[in-house]
Amino acid sequence: MNDLNTQITAELSRLGADLVGFGDLTELPPEVRHNMPVGISFGICVPREIVRGIAEAPTLEFWDYYHSGQDDLAQLAEMSAQFLHSLGLTAVPITKENVKFVGPLRSELPLKTLATLAGLGWIGKCALLATERFGTAIWFGGILTDAPLTTSAPITESKCGDCNVCTQRCPGGAASGLLWNAGLDRDDFFDAQKCAAAGRERANAYLGIDYPLCGRCIAVCPRTRRYLEGGE
Ligand code: SF4
Ligand code: SF4
């Protein structure tokens, strides 16, 4: 890491990020990355008490956090971009205003892809970003920039191995069980429509909310459970 990496990591951590990484984006088409060569990926972990509640069914606490967590990520992206601007650098926060959707439930530069390029994790069998430290209980945001940053080696292979817990516990049968790698399209191992349909059914049944909300694959992942065991 160079000094600028350290400075940006410190600022993002001060603003609330739990993980920060830097990815080389130059292999991606320029229009997808706003012509920026580097992506800064950052994650905010989902609080343990929220995760513990959703192993069987979605909860109102998770519903509230779902919104506040998204807002926090967007705000963090905006504030971090402003910080880079203050250093005289170009930075584009990846917020909904700057993201193009290229199909149902699919953006042209998914934040999870950015996190793998920044070496922060891999894509689990239920298409969540999986990390060593927080399991799948972490949500990601990002910034695109021209800052002269040192980038990490990307993660290109799954570390799920023969674990199939999320595949087996998914109420929608959304995951095929196939291991992700960087060359595999999400739709080749995960059916996002099935996940959305099951989430909507469960949110309706348990909370009376007509919105796709489930999250069981976050709570049951053995790596998440390790994170849960690590604190109050
Ligand atoms: S959120 Fe629920 S329905 Fe969607 S993949 Fe995870 S466990 Fe399956
Ligand atoms: S539950 Fe197992 S297969 Fe699913 S993301 Fe976690 S480690 Fe991977």
How many domains? The number is 1
What's the β-strand tally?
Answer: 8
Bound ligands, named by name, code or SMILES = iron/sulfur cluster
- Alpha-carbon distance between the two ends: 33 Å
Count, helices: 8
- What spatial form do the alpha-carbon principal axes imply? globular
Q: Radius of gyration, Cα only, in angstroms? A: 17 Å
Describe it:
This protein has 232 residues and is of the alpha+beta class. The chain has one domain. The chain has helices spanning 3-15, 48-52, 60-86, 111-117, 165-169, 192-207, 216-220, 222-229, and strands at 19-24, 38-45, 91-93, 101-103, 106-107, 122-123, 129-130, 138-145. The strands form three sheets. Strands 1-2-8-3 form a four-stranded antiparallel sheet, sandwiched between helices. The two termini are 33 Å apart. One iron/sulfur cluster binds next to α5 and α8.
Task: List the topology elements.
Elements: H1 3-15, E1 19-24, E2 38-45, H2 48-52, H3 60-86, E3 91-93, E4 101-103, E5 106-107, H4 111-117, E6 122-123, E7 129-130, E8 138-145, H5 165-169, H6 192-207, H7 216-220, H8 222-229
Antiparallel strand pairs: 1-2, 2-8, 3-8, 4-5, 6-7
Helix pairs in contact: 1-3
Bound molecules: iron/sulfur cluster (SF4) (2 copies).
The site of one iron/sulfur cluster (SF4) has 13 residues, from α5 and α8.
Key terms for this structure?
8 helices; 4-stranded antiparallel sheet; binds iron/sulfur cluster; 232 residues; 15% strand; alpha+beta
